[in-house]
Sequence to fold (350 residues):
Amino acid sequence: MRAFHDARSAAHDPDRYFRRGAIVAHPEQASRYAVLRDAIAGHHRLEAPADHGEAPILAVHDAGYIRFLAEAWSRRAEIPGSIDEVLSGHFARPDMSRRPEGLLGLVGYYTADTSTPVRAGTWEAVRAGAQVAASAADAALADGRAYALCRPPGHHAYAASAGGFCFINNSAVAAQRLRETQARVAILDIDVHHGNGTQGIFYTRGDILTVSVHADPADYFPYYAGYADETGAGAGAGCNRNLPLAHGSGDDAWLAALAEALDGIARFAPGALVVALGLDASQDDPIGALRVTTDGFARAAEAIAGAGLPTTIVQEGGYLCEALPRNLSAFLDAFDAAAGATALRAPSRP
Ligand SMILES: [Zn+2]
Fold:
């Protein structure tokens, strides 16, 4: 399939963050970009994205937040001392949420945690990732399927906040772009972490179904969302579905939840599907909590391709380990094989 990517994705390169009381190496490293790209070179057609400008980003994000992301690095002199990243240890809370003027306060206003520092290349990288997602959405409508190598990931980003390594919600960008031509769009998030930002962006909308299969958040990131009783609100009532799994669940439980998710998507009858493809459900992932095998990822791809929908596969999590490139390749290869078979079968359907 066509696989969109942009070398500027590597321009955001955080090397450390504060986790569980200590400064540790940042798992969301720039080298993920080259590892994922090289995993599929030769199997899939690597392409540069078109530049769609900032409209696809602003279609799902708050303008003040995006201005903050674009300007924070150039305003870094406002923070005393010599810094290599714009970051704060202060965060707004629902009961203390005035928007301040100063840069340091804005960081805590627009971010949820310490994993999303704005560095020299951050805006360049996240803006490029959104272009990758938009281009892949266009290609999926034309060709039936496409892959967006977005890095850093996006599904923890809300309309007006970064968090969980994510700045721009690339899966939401793709879904909203598909919505321009489709009456209904579904997002299926299979990252090990709940897609809380995506849920938040579309929670009150009835035209975009969000479904997430993930490790139980009761004692796992993102902690404050991702529970089964979060089903949407207002016009979006019934259009959000969470399928949390017990930690340590393997292929059987994960694929059973996926089948349940696909049943719900079929009932919604969308015109297009976005898959938020986190590979951190892998049994080998350094920060994962589930035990999905490479064969499990291939079987997931077959099941999703069986839905027969134009599908945009957007890269989310999945961290450096020996299995990471193998799992991406297995997923995309199996998707292509199954989608090809579905297309060949289609004319004989009643
Ligand atoms: Zn994840």
User: Anything to note?
Assistant: Strands lie at 2-4, 16-19, 22-25, 45-47, 145-148, 185-189, 208-215, 240-245, 272-277, 311-315. Residues 2-50+121-340 form a domain with the Arginase; Chain A fold (CATH 3.40.800.20). Residues 1 and 213 are 25 Å apart (CA to CA).
